[in-house]
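Appendix B. Chain record.
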Amino acid sequence: MTTLNTPTTTDTLSSYNPSTGDLVGSVPVTPADQVDAVIAKARAAQPAWAALSAQERADMLKPAGEALVAKAEELGRILSLEQGKPLAEGIGEVNACGAGMAETVDEIAQAVQPEVLTGEGAKSMLHYDPFGVCATITPWNFPILMPHWGVVPALVAGNTCVLKPSEQTPLIADEYVKVLNQFLPEGVLQIIHGEDDQGKALVAGDVDMIAFTGSKTAGQHIMAAAAPGLKRLILELGSKDPCIVLEGADLEQAATFAARNSFRNCGQVCVSTERIYVQESIKDAFMDKLLEQTKEFTIGDCLDENANIGPMVMREQKEHVLKQVEDAKSKGAKVLFGGNQLEGNFVEPTILDGVNHDMDIMVTETFGPIACVATVKDADEAVELANDTEYGLGAVVFGEEEVARKVGRQLTAGMIGVNRSMGGTGGAPWVGARKSGIGYHSGPLGHRQFCQLRVVTTNEATSEN
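Structure tokens predicted for this chain:
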């Protein structure tokens, strides 16, 4: 097997299967000095796009959802070949974007409708106007879902959009844009390809807002570059999500969640469980169940029907994960499962026991299939350690219901699950706290982040808006 480096910028950007090293395809690189022209085209298209009603824009996108569903197998295969996740998951990711399109765009259109406030003889109209041009910069771990989450609300809100996908997964993003552009006016949605130079040119260009999903470090650079223009930002950044397991927990449920959320997508998920804190009195019973669940995961190529975990997307990511594991072992952590060296970009699902916060793997984001388990004496210690991080995206606590709810309210993450995953109900936004994000997306509150709020107040007797 071939282990891959991050590609370097050439006239074309090639995408390789991270399992085999085989070429999947390539796209033309957008010269960095042409990014301003792309933005100018988006700027020129924006007034006519904004002149449509939000519902008209939403209705224009609905057929794109049907087209995505119709092409789910074809696009899902491209996604899995260049990202590495099992084919069923790749197809499922495309299907989810397409099947939910109509409901999503209607929700966005409703969220950005004007609101009315009255009182003291006056009426205030709250208008949710587009910013103008939105730059959307997305990662490789969910390479159609992440563009979808950024592009669709920006468009329905009346912005035009320039998408810059990860250089690791350009093919599926390119196909996604082609599908949407079958139904959109020219210039409303464009895509640029490349690496750092193109991303920096986009951030520095004449855009009004930037929606970014990626690492904390990259987010900090974007925030600094956007500061002179006070460009509006939505930043979903890294995390180090904790899972707390206390007395009274359903240990089968807790272990099933901890294993799946540590290992799915080979741990390459922004809300992966990266720290597990288990109360001492139930530790042995929990570990037995965690071991059972971990054995259910099989590594392999995306086209291997028996595999439910693929590879790391690139060599550098594998090296980072293994370096953290070795550091933890050198400081006393014990490998209870896995830990074997594998060929290529594959990393075995691994359980580390006896970890502590002196180890880098309990402090720095891992983004790999490693379940790190620490023992705590009680809920107070669990909360203290769970909050001992600069991050704050997701967190989960399992335990007796009343106790678990109280513990959940003490955690500093933006999204907390109590005896379940941290994902919210329909309409809930996706929120990062602390250094895991600025702003938020999804749900009516998240959709409005793509809008400039303007308040127009008149005497109540007038009928003008």
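Further analysis of this model is presented in Appendix C.
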